[in-house]
Amino acid sequence: MGLDIYAGTLTRYYAHNWKSAVQQWAEANGYTFQRVTPEGEQVEEEAELDPAEIQDIVENWRDQVIAGISQPDREPYLPWPEDNERPYYTDKPDWDAYGAMLLMAACCTYEEPVPKTVEKGWDFWSHSLIARLAEDPEYVWSLHRGAVWWLPISDGFLFQGPLPNGNPAVIGTLGALRIELEHLNEMAWQADEATILGWSETEGYPVDGKIDPGSLISRADIDEHTQFDTDSLAKFAFSMFWQALCFAEKQQVPILLDY
């Protein structure tokens, strides 16, 4: 399945009161949207809970997390707002671009040349430099340690714990993500914010392949391309993460990866 990035309340996320970038495009262009597995099977819709019930569950989880990570000699972290109406941000970097961003960070960290291209569908976690950065005690990057959520806390750290649905996960903070993104930009591009914001439109997957409008596939799925430009994909994903970060900081909401 593809990779989306979402910044918004957890209540809205679990209530399914949000639409992915592909779903928004489908509805805007008169197509029916349906999620499928990598094997092409239809994803069955989960039973819907009442949003008020979801909010109670999420707020209870939030408060337990805050109590667990707050330091005894410091003021406890403030709870972020939860509701089913607060605005959200979402976009679709997909896995290849996400991996390219991780590769760019690893190459820059270890001062190694950045490969010009990456293979479509590549297993980026097995790349030697990405794997090295994921285990290096000198560099603790939430992105490379497998974080899937970033909570609206300005201090930079990560931890392991259960999500509201009970699944274990690595969880970071917006503070950690900001440090990492700023450092990556400093190492790789030194781009100003206007340039970064534009990359989600000017960089990324090739667009000169043929797409069946009714298939709702992403640009990453174009059959004609088996290799992608590493730098372009990295900028594409970076722009989406940067936009999600700025949005989440302003709204005081978490960021999470949806796949």
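(ticket continues) Second input and output from the same batch:
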Amino acid sequence: MENKKKDTMVKDALILCTITLIAGLLLGVIYDMTKEPIAQRKILEKQNTYRSVYQTATEFEESEELAEKVLACSNDWNTNGSEFGKVIVNEALYAKDENGTVIGYIVSATSREGYGGDIQVAMGIRLDGYIEGVSILDMNETVGLGARAKEPAYLSQYMGKTVDRFLVTTTGKTAENEIDAMTSSTITSKAVTNAINAALAFASDYAE
């Protein structure tokens, strides 16, 4: 009786191992099948975002030169610190017109000091520093509070301007470079502004 019980346990264990192995193999196959479509979708979403923040550009080009400058910027800020807090520049591309002429940059930057964590923005910046557009790529801020940073009413404060830096105010903006903080979301407002300021600094200090 005891041997029979052991045989049953062994069989059950083998069956469980077989099921686990098959499930693992299936998951691997599914991952391989979906990995490329997911990656392509993310690329398409990113390109659509870039078009939305730089509507006068017809092409966005990656460049080893810009990639090296992004790395140089990251190394400088890691070594010497950044005046924008905990920020990084994620990516930079050339924005080109229909003739293939470089007319500006797409710069993506992240502040690590949002209320809910990282906040990543994408910006279209002309060669003269004029801000064509701004979009939030990723954030985990509170719905109804910090998440309002994605809304045009807030982001429009940054657009169509040529400034070196933006400042967040809670008393009502009176200057071109001032941004009205969202009510009860000053931390988010500052994090978004720091990411945008980091992108501007990269474009003016490193990209050119």
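Agent notes: The longest strand covers residues 102-114. The chain is about 45% helix and 25% strand. Closing as not reproducible unless the customer responds.
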